[in-house]
Amino acid sequence: MRIDATDVSATAGGRVVLSGVTLGLRMGEFVGLIGPNGAGKTTLLRILAGLAPPSAGTVAFDGDGAAVGRKAPDRQALARRIAYLAQDGAVHWPLCVEALVMLGRLPHRGRLGGVTTADRAAVERALATTDTLHLRRRVVGTLSGGERMRVLLARALATEAALLLADEPVAALDPRHQLEAMALLRDAARSGSGSGTGVVAVLHDLTLAARFCDRLVLLSGGTVQADGPPDRVLTDERLRDAYGIAVHRGRAADQPFLLPWTTLPTSPANLPVTLPEAPTR
User: Whose CA is closest to 47, among 87, 83, 1, 9?
Assistant: First the structure.
């Protein structure tokens, strides 16, 4: 499966959140979506998932005519092919963990369809992969923030979609589970001889992004500043312009790491753009 965004723009509250964004996503790669707060990462992810329309441009799924902004795609078919993990981790029902993860199988069932053997097997795999088997009988409201995020990741994985779009999936996790979550996302993308699940994750930890992702998309000021392998995206100049930081670099076990070290002046070109007010009559 592919998602192709072409010249996508979005506005919110009179502010340009995204402007002219063009990128393609496919199965078999782990893409990190990075950039400073307010860069438009969550907005872009929701548009790519078909959850929000762009104000301009199109998003096409597998190159067919179902482009957001022109013709609404088949929502149930899209839900089987794209899993979305929101950043807030909110759960509004007193469900046990196993029941919540089972909700990830809803797109595969008809209106009156019951739980199948395949559904139960998918849930079991998702719980095992996210190290949440021991939580299966717990009520979600009793979980810690990190446990809840792992359970929500399990729900997304249970869908067994071709593409997984995750908004800050490791933000609430402790260091061990951050590493485990990033490894499982990378492994999901690389499974099946390069035709595994396509994974797009909004990330703030630049070392995790550099170490685990195949490709990074750097957003700043609502536009794509860079798109490519981590070492080509995370240059000193781009980090200065996008984040206003200098970093300390190194390698450990032949893996790169970079630590934000000091703040620098940001580039005026990357500040958010505000739309002019409509003329009054």
Answer: 9
Q: What is the pLDDT of residues 113-158, one digit of tens each?
A: 789 999 999 999 999 989 999 999 999 999 988 898 899 999 999 9
pLDDT higher than threshold 50 for residue 279: no
Secondary structure (3-state) at 225: strand
SS3 146: helix
Task: Give the C-alpha separation, 163 to 154, whole Å.
Answer: 14
Residue 88's pLDDT band, with cuts at 50, 70 and 90, is: confident
Query: Rounded to 5 degrees, what angle do the CA atoms 155, 166, 45 make?
Result: 130
Would you list the DSSP string of 6-35? EEEEEEETTEEEEEEEEEEEETT-EEEEE-
CA 211 to chain centre: 17
- Angle at which helices 145-158 and 117-129 pack, to 10 degrees? 140
What pTM value is reported for the model? 0.85
By CB neighbour count within 10 A (0-12 exposed, 13-18 middle, 19+ buried), where does 126 fall?
buried
Q: Kindly report the number of other CB atoms within 10 A of residue 57's CB atom.
A: 21
Backbone angles phi, psi at 92, to 5 degrees: -105, 10
Kindly report the CA angle at 140 between 138 and 141, in degrees rounded to 5? 115
Lookup: tokens for 49? 């998932």
Q: Which domains does the chain have, with CATH numbers?
A: 2-274 (3.40.50.300)
